[in-house]
Design goal:
The protein is mainly alpha-helical. The chain contains 25 helices and four strands. It is 72% helix and 2% strand.
């Protein structure tokens, strides 16, 4: 019975998806259905977690294995794994995901597309649960692609708006680039090791250090890392995540806090026994993470859209998790992933409350003075910003300090990585303080039309905010501090957070960056523009040339030649009209039928009983 409970955790959100998609409930009913299934899933996951704590160390709960597909020596089995690593992610997905569902009832209450929205939200959580509870890489890839699909559907939820639809398409395409690396990495692993099961891979690498030539192992791990780069929005595939802000704000919270972007960090942690065998792969991960963290933090400092600040903040914090993974501190990476889930969900939902109160306004330059008008939103967002900045005694302080300590003490680290973390921490404290000051403090800059309608969000939206605030404050207690405390680093980290946040509040709102620097940061160092200039536009022009040549010239000339040939054959007039009608659809139908005939003929000629 216990072994079937992980399946129940997975199927409850899927049942919510089917109910919202097929039964066509009212907006209120769809919200209740979706939130209830997530709540039940969380309760079952919590029960499983408590049962897991009673088992001996290293033991886990797994569903019975089911043979899905047998191809030669490859036997693809389906089984769900509930162990120490996956249990934490399952609780995050169902717990924080459930709070986001509850918040969405208030946020989407007057949206006529609520049923579709909640269906996709449930489906998103289903695929993420499949990803984190997978016992093998193929099943993980199923969830991996599923969350990519759902991100496309949810980011482009209001698809009537071309900008929002394009943002969803961009996220989908950029993730496919990384996913190609994931697929190739799986192929190399199976070719050389003959298995894709996580427990089997861990056992193999715990027995021997020379299962693969070093170059082959490094290449395989870097290909898998390419998938993590795409999902977790690291350089060079980082630009899709800030554009993903086009979707509803609760979707942003779900993507940034509980699903999808955490998948890359989870992949590295799940395959940590393999990655620890390749110093080259580890150093690559750490450098990519460190550079991305500083890059995104500097950009966040110059953004004026409240959601864009948080988006680049997510990219930066994920970079820190990659640094931790790259220096071998996978526990620190998962610890920061957990605390980040608390305070980033809080920040996005609080930002949604601000936007909701301001009738859709997202530009912080037009806000200010909201502190007394929406006090619950202000207090909860202040807690989130302080936690993000790493203020002492809040959860973000402990998890970020773990990463800094790991980078300082690990033999895989370097002075460069420590410097990148410290600089990122300084910028994080600065933009966190700046956000609070511009949105809530000082003189109100909103239009009179908006001021007259300002109001605090309903309880169904503020209850998740208060809950996440409590988790953000006390989430640091979840850590197991096995390493000795370095008080010097802790003091440095605390001073950076306190002084940086104070400067962000008092100085930055009125501080003018040099024009060139400001434009560079606002345009994210022109990375997107470079992609369009060097890749997208040339590819588009090549496609147009090929389309004009192949479709409009070569294929058309072939059809003309075919029609003339038909008229020379001794056929009746009706047959000639069928094969040379001048109708492109008729030609395509004939081509498809001919191809199918050839395919079936070849199949039956080679078929043996």
């Amino acid at each position: 019975m216990l072994s079937l409970l992980p399946l129940l955790v997975l199927l409850l959100p899927f049942g919510g998806f089917l109910s919202c998609a097929l039964l066509r409930p009212t907006p209120k009913q769809s919200g209740v259905i979706a939130s209830s299934t997530m709540g039940l899933s969380f309760l079952v996951a919590l029960l499983l977690f408590l049962k897991l704590q009673q088992l001996p160390a290293g033991e886990y709960i797994a569903t019975p294995s089911y043979l899905w597909l047998a191809l030669g020596t490859l036997n693809l089995k389906i089984s769900l794994l509930f162990d120490e690593l996956s249990s934490l992610l399952v609780l995050i997905v169902t717990g924080i995901g459930g709070l986001i569902h509850l918040y969405s009832i208030g946020y989407m209450h007057d949206d006529r597309t609520s049923a579709r929205y909640f269906a996709h939200l449930n489906l998103f959580c289903f695929f993420m649960l499949a990803l984190v509870m997978s016992s093998s890489l193929p099943l993980m890839f199923f969830g991996w692609e599923g969350v990519g699909l759902c991100s496309y559907l949810l980011i482009g939820h209001w698809y009537e708006d071309q900008e929002k639809a394009s943002a969803g398409t961009k996220a989908f395409i950029m993730n496919r680039i990384g996913d190609l690396g994931f697929l190739l990495g799986m192929f190399f692993l199976f070719r050389h090791l003959g298995t894709l099961e996580f427990k089997a891979l861990t056992q193999l690498f715990s027995q021997s250090l020379a299962l693969l030539p070093e170059g082959t192992l490094t290449l395989t791990l870097l290909l898998l890392f390419a998938g993590a780069i795409g999902k977790s929005a690291q350089i060079p595939l980082a630009t899709w995540l800030p554009d993903a802000m086009s979707g509803p704000t609760p979707v942003s919270a779900l993507i940034h806090a509980a699903t999808m972007v955490t998948a890359g960090v989870f992949l590295l942690a799940r395959l940590s026994p393999l990655y620890m065998q390749s110093p080259t792969a580890m150093m690559t991960i750490a450098i990519v993470g460190g550079v991305t963290a500083l890059w995104a933090a500097s950009i966040a400092l110059a953004q004026n859209d409240i959601k864009k600040v948080l988006a680049y903040s997510t990219v930066s914090q994920l970079g820190l998790m990659f640094v931790a993974s790259g220096v071998g501190a996978f526990n620190a990476a998962i610890f920061h992933l957990t605390t980040h889930a608390f305070f980033k969900a809080l920040l996005f939902l609080a930002a949604g409350s601000v936007i909701h109160a301001c009738l859709g306004e997202q530009d912080m330059r037009k806000m200010g003075g909201l502190k007394k008008i929406i006090p619950i939103t202000f207090i909860t967002m202040l807690i989130g910003a302080l936690t993000l900045a790493g203020i002492p005694l809040l959860s973000g302080f402990f998890s970020k300090d773990e990463i800094l300590l790991a980078a300082y003490t690990s033999p895989l680290s370097s002075t460069l990585l420590v410097a990148l973390i410290i600089l990122t921490s300084i910028l994080t404290a600065l933009y966190s303080g700046r956000l609070i000051a511009m949105a809530f403090l000082g003189k109100m800059r909103l239009d009179d039309r908006i001021v007259s309608k300002l109001h605090e969000s309903p309880k169904i939206m503020t209850i998740p905010l208060v809950t996440l605030s409590i988790l953000s404050i006390f989430g640091g207690a979840l850590a197991h501090h096995s390493a000795p405390i370095n008080y010097t680093l802790m003091i440095v980290s605390a001073v950076i957070a306190l002084v940086g946040f104070w400067i962000g509040v008092k100085v930055l709102p009125n501080f003018k960056l040099p024009s060139t620097l400001r434009k560079t940061l606002e345009n994210a160092y022109y990375l997107d523009r470079s992609y369009y200039k060097l890749i997208v536009n040339p590819y588009r022009r090549l496609s147009e040339v090929l389309a004009n040549f192949l479709d409009q010239k070569l294929f058309y000339d072939f059809l003309i030649l075919l029609s003339r040939l038909i008229y020379t054959l001794p056929l009746g007039s009706k047959s000639k009209r069928l094969f040379a009608s001048g109708n492109l659809n008729s030609y395509l139908l004939i081509f498809a039928l001919s191809f199918l005939t050839i395919l079936l003929t070849t199949f039956f000629m080679n078929f043996k009983i």
